[in-house]
Design a protein that fits this description.
Shape: elongated
Radius of gyration: 35 Å
Distance between the termini: 75 Å
Bound molecules: adenosine-5'-diphosphate, magnesium ion, zinc ion
CATH class of the largest domain: Alpha Beta
Structural class: alpha/beta
Number of domains: 3
């Protein structure tokens, strides 16, 4: 018999762990067992807000400083539960506000009596955020740290299994069974065992109508002996699950005439009324309204302002009192987080409605704007449109970036005081630096536009248009930025949310700006690809250094070709220096600087490498590009037939674009043609 290898051992451990977890999740016990659990780990008795807060923290938080402000990034919003599929990007400030409100609710500072209202423009990820909270709550309930319990009634206390157990229909907290007179003492005892800096564990209410009925019947039967009553109690772990309608609810109002309170608070079970003889017997009632089933967890109200006014008031009551009123039954306690969301247009429509006054009072409104950080916007589209998700089509470099740039630009306000363009402001927000701009300036820019992000183009629009461009037959095997930008432009004329012509016009202008930016980017890339010939640059550099040396020491330069002694080539030196804006009056200084540096290196026995001097490298690259641009006759690409020699050079450049910049053959050819056409146009703009 051999020994088990490490793999086999690990496998055994893994299986055991699962088994352990399984046992924990399926634990059942008596009431006394539960009290023991609570005393050991008081957190099992926390309320919905407290559990939500702990769930969020359990995924960790990263603190950071940006533009002299402190921020926190809560990892739960990276959607760890689903491998990032629902990750929210660039919204740390509003998400911090959301978490702070959950925290204050957990500590019982009043927020727990309000509806958390996510408010923002269409497609700003409000539903996504609610989904993350719901999924997180579900998964947390399956973990050791997130454990919670509920109970049922055994028909006779001699039994053991779960046969015939009637589970509390609202899966309430077993501590509800503690008689009122004893509650204070019990909770004091529980809180003695919690961290004094944390929140207090508080009672979450009394028995639901169903359990109250059984409780009273048993009390009568046992002549008021509570001890004997508890022998009927079976406690079990409660696993929250939206699919099973346990602890996680979602409510979407249908059209206004069709709303019925039973959808929220449950309904009579007509078949059972006959059995129990009366419609006020809780056993003849289905406690399956959305607010009932979401007890202990979280409920999401989609388009909450579409709720019929009467229900809206009920709901406001539910959040304020933590009580609901099922038909024919007294008020019933609930313990759940209520999150609603509404679109900005919907909210505005009701602004002057008197209902809104009450509503505003009883909700915590958290604005969820669109993201305004360019590179975060890129992540939104990069998640869906990448090599892994898209097969059969290539997405040309910068396609996603340019689409994202436009999306962000539509959301920004024109800078008021500062002497910068909108595009520059966008880049500052994206973390780029701009000469003369400090972090404080960026902070000021943000502060002068507090509503920024509440208007503009939604990510959904961009996602749809990129998809359109991808499925179009006439886009060939590669989709490039122009195709998407054109798609974005075409869609503007029938965009349902753009109601004013001037906005349409502005969005079109912004598209032009983006195309301009794109032009600069590809020109730069082609330039780099053409001048990526290191040998040629090194040669040019050697030539330049020979000349400035001769110039500095008033010597001659030996012409390698003719063997003659020539004067330093002033034209060559200047043509390089001009590329980095060194003026005639500054040229001597610059040349001396370079010479000093080379001399210092020589003393250490080192050789000069142009790559160590960023400015000189740039100057050399630009000069080489200028020379080569003509020699490979880029411009000839646009019109005439290309000769063999030129074609070879072009293929080398294309190869570099593919290798270094992720182009495919199609888009590499496209941008070479495009850049060629820019030069053919005689565009002399230098960057
Ligand atoms: N800041 C963001 N980060 C990640 N994805 C986002 C962001 N904003 C919007 N989205 C994406 O846009 C789409 C619309 O989001 P959704 O949650 O339905 O918006 P809402 O409920 O606010 O209308 C989703 O695909 C979502 O992933
Ligand atoms: Mg939504
Ligand atoms: Zn109950
Ligand atoms: Zn391509």
């Amino acid at each position: 018999m051999g020994f088990a290898g490490p793999e086999a051992l690990l496998e055994i451990i893994r299986k055991k762990q699962d088994l352990q977890g399984y046992r924990e999740r399926h634990w059942t016990g008596g009431f006394a067992d539960y009290v023991e659990i609570v005393l050991q780990n008081p957190k099992v008795a926390r309320n919905g807000y407290q559990r939500l807060y702990d769930m969020i923290l359990s995924h960790g938080v990263a603190e950071y400083t940006r533009h002299h402000e402190k921020y926190a990034h809560y990892h739960i919003f990276d959607d760890p539960v689903d491998g990032g599929r629902d990750a929210v990007f660039g919204l740390d400030p509003p998400l911090m506000r959301l978490v702070n409100n959950v925290k204050s609710a957990a500590f019982g500072y009043g927020t727990e009596k309000r509806i958390l209202l996510l408010h923002g423009p269409v497609g700003s990820s409000k539903s996504t955020i609610a989904r993350i909270l719901k999924k997180g709550t579900e998964v947390y309930s399956t973990t050791k740290e997130g454990a919670l319990y509920t109970y049922g009634w055994r028909p006779d206390f001699t039994g053991t299994g779960q046969d015939g157990v009637q589970w509390c229909p609202m899966h309430e907290e077993p501590l509800h069974l503690v008689p009122l007179e004893a509650q204070e003492t019990i909770y004091a005892e529980i809180n003695r065992r919690t961290d004094p800096r944390g929140y207090r564990i508080v009672p979450t209410g009394n028995l639901c109508p169903f359990c109250r009925k059984i409780y009273q019947d048993l009390m009568t039967q046992y002549d008021g002996n509570w001890e004997r009553l508890t022998r009927h109690i079976v406690v079990r772990r409660l696993i929250l699950s939206e699919k099973d309608r346990v602890g996680i609810g979602t409510f979407q109002p249908k059209d206004e005439k069709n709303q019925d309170s039973t959808e929220l608070t449950g309904d009579l079970n007509y078949r059972k009324i006959a059995e129990y003889g009366t419609d006020s017997d809780p056993r003849a009632f289905n406690f399956d309204g959305e607010l009932n089933i979401a007890n202990r967890g979280i409920i999401e109200f989609i388009e909450i302002l579409k709720l019929d006014v009467a229900f809206l008031y009920d709901l406001l009551g539910a959040s304020q009192e933590h009580k609901i009123k099922p038909k024919k039954f007294p008020q019933t306690d609930i313990d759940e987080v209520i999150v609603g969301h509404t679109n900005e247009p919907e909210y505005k429509k009701l602004q002057n409605n008197e209902l809104m006054e009450a509503f505003r009072d009883r909700t915590v409104k958290i604005d969820i704007p669109y993201n305004t950080v360019w590179k975060e916007e890129v992540k939104i589209y990069g998640r869906d449109f990448n090599d892994r998700q898209i097969t059969g089509k290539h997405i040309a470099p910068h396609t996603i970036e340019m689409s994202a740039m436009w999306a962000v630009l539509t959301r920004l306000e024109e800078p008021k005081k500062a002497q910068i363009t909108l595009v520059q402001k966008m880049k500052l927000y994206a973390g780029k630096t701009l000469p003369g701009f400090t972090e404080d300036n960026v902070k000021e820019l943000r502060e002068e536009a507090p509503r920024e992000g509440m208007e503009g183009i939604s990510p959904r629009y961009i996602q749809d248009k990129i998809s359109n461009a991808l499925v179009r037959d006439d886009t060939g095997s590669c989709v490039n930025p122009f195709m998407v930008l054109n798609e974005l432009e075409a869609g503007l004329s029938h965009h349902s949310l753009i109601t004013r012509e001037e906005i349409r016009k502005r969005y079109r202008e912004l598209l032009t700006m983006v195309k301009q930016e794109y032009e600069d980017v590809v020109k730069n890339e082609v330039q780099k690809a053409i001048s990526a010939d290191e040998e040629a640059i090194a040669r040019l550099c050697g030539n330049y250094v020979d000349n400035i040396k001769a110039y500095t020491f008033h010597e001659k330069v030996r012409n390698k070709f003719t063997g003659q002694e020539d004067d330093p080539d002033e034209r060559l030196m200047r043509s390089i220096e001009e590329k980095i804006d060194i003026s005639e009056s500054r040229k001597d200084d610059f040349r001396r600087e370079v010479m000093n540096y080379i001399a210092a290196l020589a003393l250490e026995g080192k050789q000069f490498d142009y790559k160590t001097n960023e400015r000189l490298q740039k100057a050399l690259e630009l000069k080489l590009f200028e020379d080569q641009k003509d020699s490979i006759k880029l411009t000839s690409l646009v019109s005439s037939v290309v000769d063999k020699d030129t074609q070879e050079k072009i293929d080398i450049v294309k190869g570099r674009l593919i290798k270094n910049y992720a182009y495919c053959d199609v888009c590499a050819t496209d941008i070479l043609n495009y850049v060629a056409s820019i030069f053919a146009r005689g565009d002399s703009k230098q960057r």
